[in-house]
Task: structure prediction
Amino acid sequence: MTDEKSGRITMLHGAGGTVMHDLVRNYVVRYFGGASNAEVPLEAMDDAAVVGDVVFKSDSHAVKPIFFPGGDIGCLSVSGTVNDISMLGAEPYALACGFVLEEGLALADFERILVSMRQTCAEAGVSIVTGDTKVVEKGSLGGCVINTSGIGRRTPALDRNLKVVKSFRKSFKPRWALDSNLARGDKIILSGTIGDHGLAVLSAQEGLSFGSGIKSDVKPLNRLIQRLLGEVGGIVAMKDPTRGGLADAINEFSEKSNVGMLLHEDKIPIRGDVRAACEMLGLDPFEVGNEGKVIIGVVKEKADEILKLLRKTEEGKEAEIIGEATADFAGVAMQTVVGGKRIIARPVGDPVPRIC
Ligand code: MG
Result:
């Protein structure tokens, strides 16, 4: 399946699961890792790096098609980088943007993408301050690829959040919300429904209509996260469940923090039409990517307050406490609605190609 023998890159190498993680670890980190004294270095493979007090992130967007229900490559490329910077607890403020345009792309479509990017920047409170434009011959790019890179900074809200964490966990040392920060007893909160983005893109790729309005959840989450950090606090780790979905993100938490994760199936929010479409297509909604959701690890004493504030917001109105970190076992298990336990393994790759 991974086509290791061919010695060539396959679509699975970009699908966010074990195959992609192995590629990054065995090639990219092998050559570039260990070379910096960054506080959060490349080899941490977190959502972004920390160099000095600057949070730094780069992300290329190759979604196909470039327009899909609920969004387009423009708002996606801004939200993607904004959200990864936000996951460490930082406030993003400036972006660089590199366009690779395909010969034949309609100028009207390019302009539509720029308008969407400008709107999303305004929503997130960030600016695009530098960039680059290249054009390639007509091929299979699908119109354009957009890279955005961005920087973010610490905020008083993050410092306040860490103070709250330390009031419950004296030995807590990290200065950022990292994947490796979780400990036994922490609660896991999911900010809303899963699978919407992947299915919206799939419906556009395949010309499918699921008979209802499944739309992408693509959205910048930085303002929401700063509110949660500043007004409640107690957050130790955050991750946006993009490629590979909830299953990949939660396994990453578990591996890096060296704790087990117990999820409760009845608490995981999934839209009825998303669930039905997944069943019809044989997809696991846990492995389908999202672009406007956050998984939050929080000290148990603050979980209810975080949930309450989330539910008052548009982005978090369907939030749930979906599980907790445990020392009872390693890896990720889910208490199913029928009373058994199911292992949630790291997916090989997101079942939908080119969703971001
Ligand atoms: Mg991320």
